[in-house]
Design goal:
The protein is mostly helical. The protein has seven helices and two strands, in the order ααααβαααβ. It has two domains: 83 residues, no CATH class; 58 residues, LysM domain (Membrane-bound Lytic Murein Transglycosylase D, Chain A, Roll), CATH 3.10.350.10.
Length: 179
Amino acid sequence: MNYGWLKPDTSDEEYSRVVLHEFGHALGCIHEHQHSEAGIPWNRDAVYRYYMEKNNWSREQVDINLFTHYSKDITQFSHFDTESIMLYAVPKELTTNGFEVGWNRYLSETDKAFMSAVYPGENAGRTYTVQPGDFLSAIAEKFYGDGSEASWRRIYDANRNTIGPDPTKLTAGMVLVIP
């Protein structure tokens, strides 16, 4: 865990953001910008200048910490989550088309779903068998009292390997883990 830049006068909000991010690593999360489907249109020259100056990183450190993508063969993935606590801020000056994301300060719904699937705790063993005509939003409504996209994505992210790439393609008889 890297807390080297936190000082006694650092804001509580920044402490919280950094601790959540670093504990994400301790629990097995990778940087979201290294997701195999991130597709961030980096301006590499600008990124090298920025991180070499700001963090005193070498080109190799920038490559390792920003440009290296993890293969689906070696880690678990949800969809690319621009709200993840594990995503570095992406200033528009570091991209080729103005794409940007600020610092995320809280766990996203996808972060929570991933952690619930990996560390199920009291919900360990809670499953649901898909019935004909089921949709993830209806299943989320049944278990969470809320059929919103954030709720059904929790279920989808925990069962991506079972459901496949299209969350609308449920098959009767599938057994889903309910995080």
